[in-house]
User: Which sequence fits this backbone?
């Protein structure tokens, strides 16, 4: 593996991870309504989903994965339905309901984040396009696959944490109960928009 060409993977992946999409919109909405700590599991789910596609592409299975369009569609629409359910819950939240139970927020956050990234076949297409530019995928050892995966996880996690920290600062500036209710409803609208975006994307 040529370490000198690793930037051909790092730079495009960092840019792609930083560009706002349905997952980032959902993350921001969740942070504004529930806070950064409750939204951390959502980031774990996002990163886990992207990690699956990164490993698939690294092992040269991108073309095979893309043949299972039916599975993509099922996961995609499950994710959309779940997003709409969360949006409805957020719409009805008031100040006293903003703190969810830890067990529920962890499972829901990971589930939602994973749905959003796993239902996006563009991720595996992207990895399948940039990885060959940086690495010889026909000559990778398992330790090199692990290194690429760890690198991808680090980049993705770091960038999504920036989104979380930024949104958390905005939430801290919101003090009144009336403003909190508006934020919850704005977050719900943002999630509905993300669900629509995901539904229209191919």
Assistant:
């Amino acid at each position: 593996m040529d370490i000198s060409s690793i930037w051909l993977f790092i730079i495009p992946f960092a840019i792609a991870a930083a560009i706002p999409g349905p997952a980032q919109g959902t993350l921001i909405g969740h942070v504004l309504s529930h806070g950064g700590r409750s939204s951390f599991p959502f980031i774990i789910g996002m990163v886990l989903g992207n990690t699956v596609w990164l490993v698939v592409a690294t092992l040269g299975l991108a073309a095979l994965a893309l043949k299972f369009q039916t599975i993509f569609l099922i996961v995609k629409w499950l994710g959309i339905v779940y997003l709409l359910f969360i949006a409805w819950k957020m719409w009805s939240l008031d100040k006293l309901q903003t703190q969810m139970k830890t067990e529920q927020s962890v499972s829901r956050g990971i589930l939602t984040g994973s749905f959003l990234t796993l239902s996006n076949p563009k991720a595996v297409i992207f990895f399948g396009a940039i990885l060959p530019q940086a690495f010889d995928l026909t000559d990778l050892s398992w330790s090199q696959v692990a290194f690429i995966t760890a690198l991808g996880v680090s980049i993705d996690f770091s960038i999504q944490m920036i989104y979380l920290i930024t949104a958390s600062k905005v939430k801290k500036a919101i003090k009144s109960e009336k403003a909190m209710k508006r934020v919850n409803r704005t977050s719900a609208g943002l999630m509905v928009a993300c669900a629509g975006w995901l539904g229209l994307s191919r």
